[in-house]
Design goal:
The chain has 173 residues and is of the alpha/beta class. The chain has four helices and eight strands.
Length: 173
């Protein structure tokens, strides 16, 4: 019965697809990038990540710098000209974008994490110690069945992290 239902759904979906004109994608390569918002602490967070993770700050522009010669116009509530309008950093081989947002609207991360994989227990412990200072630990750094070291936490800037030094996993049979 279930396979007949699936076949009927597949057939119906095929009929629908034939009627819909999907535009051709012009860009062949798609890239997903994380964008972090901070409540006025973006510059401090980027400097912190540069110091403790070796992140490279590729670009950092303030509201004042990017507003043109007339100075800041229409600043979001609670933000100043020196706050970050847009920044790009590289952590490892990953590009991350960031900015400051109105402090009353920016919330700490809830269900998303930046997952950072490292090659040694020492590096996992070092990063965990640095990023948990002033933050909130969800799972202390420890050995698990899948990792030599694994920990979950929110740093003092409200960003959730997972730090992992993975164990080799056996191939699936």
């Amino acid at each position: 019965m279930q396979s007949r239902t699936c076949s009927a759904i597949d057939k119906k979906w095929s009929e629908i697809e034939d009627k819909i004109q999907f535009p051709e994608r012009k860009i062949q390569k798609m890239k997903l990038t994380t964008y972090l918002n901070f409540p006025g602490t973006c510059a401090e967070a980027l400097d912190f990540y540069a110091k403790h993770l070796g992140a490279k700050i590729l670009m950092k522009g303030t509201f004042g710098e990017m507003a043109g010669s007339g100075g800041p116009q229409n600043l979001p509530p609670g933000l100043k000209p020196e706050h970050i309008l847009h920044a790009r950093i590289q952590i490892g081989d990953t590009l991350v974008m960031a900015s400051d947002g109105p402090p009353e609207r920016v919330q700490p991360m809830r269900s998303a994490y930046l997952a950072l994989a490292v090659d040694s227990n020492e590096e996992a412990e070092r990063i965990y110690a640095a990023l948990t200072e002033g933050g909130e630990v969800f799972m202390k750094m420890e050995e698990t069945f899948f990792a030599h070291r694994f920990g979950q936490f929110r740093d003092k800037f409200g960003i959730n992290w997972m730090v992992i030094h993975e164990k080799p996993m056996p191939p699936r049979s």
